[in-house]
Design brief:
Blueprint: H1 2-8, H2 16-30, H3 40-50, H4 56-75, H5 102-112, H6 120-130, H7 134-138, E1 145-146, E2 151-154, E3 164-167, H8 170-181, H9 203-213, H10 222-233, H11 238-245, H12 250-253, H13 257-282, H14 288-303
Antiparallel strand pairs: 1-2, 2-3
Length: 304
């Protein structure tokens, strides 16, 4: 059933490479049970076992795919009903978005070279300078990279509205030119283990790099937030930032306005310092030129 789903449904999805991995994981736990014998209790057991291995958000994504596979099985009349229908997702604690500091970036990039992951540093640099999602970066193919025009065409975004063209800055252009010279695959970031396929993930290497760099934990996705926040702080309007991020609605980009607010707060705070300096100046003995000016003003007032 899962093989049929891969060949008929998953193959047409943008994230079919990831679904192959998830289905392999599902089969390892549930593959020995016939679909018609599955029950909601099996889903609950799956939650318990996987909770010792991965985060709740990952388990929810896996169960969502399992539900869809079983729903298609019902449509194909392979089973009478979906046994996982009604199974609730785990509660996921919302993570606070974090922006990477400039000093942290230096440490992070330096430690990327200490990890046995040849593409980690290029991926971090691209994320910080393009705002591309992890999945967009990992599935990037060379035909979508125009070094002459200095553009990256994203066509495997989360939605068609997210398809976009991202201009390269000097750092990105130099990095991709270097990678292009050594390219042996249609993918910019090919798999080391499976020729012809793309790199699947980099979580382990990224976590190790953070530990070596001695910086506060940060998600790879936060590099995208860092890109957007830096643009807003530099004075780039939200509409342009929205286009670069591939947001379908400007309201999705509006949360980055806090960065602009931070800059404004810092600006008006300078008035506090200016006021403090003015208070100090008012206690000083007036200069002779100031006294002369005051005398002239009094003479003018008397004559009138």
């Amino acid at each position: 059933m899962s093989l049929k789903y891969l060949n008929l449904v998953s193959i047409h999805k943008r994230g079919h490479h990831v679904e192959q991995y998830i289905i392999k994981t599902l089969n390892a736990f549930l593959g020995k049970i016939r679909a018609r014998n599955l029950s909601a209790e099996d889903a609950e057991r799956y939650k318990v076992v996987r909770s010792h291995q991965v985060q709740p958000a990952t388990i929810n994504r896996e169960l969502t795919l399992a539900k869809h596979i079983l729903r298609k099985a019902v449509e194909w009349k392979l089973i009478a009903e979906n046994p996982f229908r009604g199974v609730r997702n785990l509660n996921v604690v919302k993570q606070v978005e974090r922006v990477l500091g400039w000093d942290e970036e230096v440490k992070l990039l330096a430690c990327c070279d200490l990890v046995h992951s040849r593409f980690l540093r290029p991926l971090v640099v691209l994320a910080l300078n393009t705002g591309m999602r992890r999945g967009e970066l990992l599935s990037l193919e060379w035909p979508r990279v125009d070094l002459g025009q200095r553009e990256i065409r994203v066509i495997n975004a989360k939605s068609k509205a997210g398809d976009r063209v991202i201009p390269m800055n000097a750092a990105v252009h130099s990095l991709l030119c270097d990678l292009a010279k050594r390219a042996t695959s249609p993918f910019v970031f090919p798999s080391n283990r499976k020729p012809g396929e793309r790199l699947l993930d980099l979580k382990k290497g990224f976590k190790t790099t953070m530990r070596l760099a001695g910086i506060r934990p940060i998600r790879f996705h936060d590099l995208r937030h860092t890109f957007a926040t830096r643009l807003v702080r530099a004075g780039v309007d939200l509409v342009t930032v929205s286009h670069l991020l591939g947001h379908s609605r400007i309201t999705m980009t509006a949360r980055y306005a806090h960065a602009l607010a931070d800059v404004k707060i810092a600006a008006v705070s300078k008035l506090d310092l200016a006021g403090f300096c003015s208070a100090l100046d008012s206690n000083r003995t007036p200069s002779s030129s100031g006294a002369d000016a005051k005398s002239e003003a009094n003479s003018f007032a008397a004559s009138t």
